[in-house]
Amino acid sequence: MRIDKSRSSSNVSSSRKTSPSGDRGAFTSAMSGSDAPSAARSTSSTVGVSSVAAIMVLQGAEDPLEKRRRSERRGRQMLEALDALKLDVLSERNPEAALKRLAQAMESERDQTDDPELESVIDQIELRVAVELAKYKSSHRR
Description:
rod-shaped, 2 domains, mainly alpha, 0% strand
C-alpha cells in the first residue's frame, strides 16, 4: 500500500476556516455567542431548584409502613391505658392517671393507613376509650 502526500494540510484547514455551514455552523455560532454563559447559568439554577424540591418532596413523603407502626403503637397505648383503668377500678384506686393517659392518647394525632382492618380496630379502640372517658366525666358531674 502506498500513501501519497499530494494533499497539503493547509488546504484542509483553510476549507474549515471559511464559513461554517450546517450543524457545525450552528454549534460554532452558539458557542461563540455571548449568550452561552447566561444560558448555562439559567439551566443550572433550574436544575438546582428542581433537585432541591425533589429532595424536599422525598423527605416529606412518609413510608406507609411507618404510618402503620405509629397507628399500631397508638392503639397499644390506648389498650394499655384501658387495662390500667380496669385494674384501678377493680382495686378501688383512684383512676386519674389512667384516665389522663387515655385522654392524651385520644388527643394524639391519628395516622391514616391503607389497611382497612387496622383502621377498623383503631376505630373500635377509640370508641371504647371515648365511652370510658364519657362515663368518668358523667360520674363526676353528679
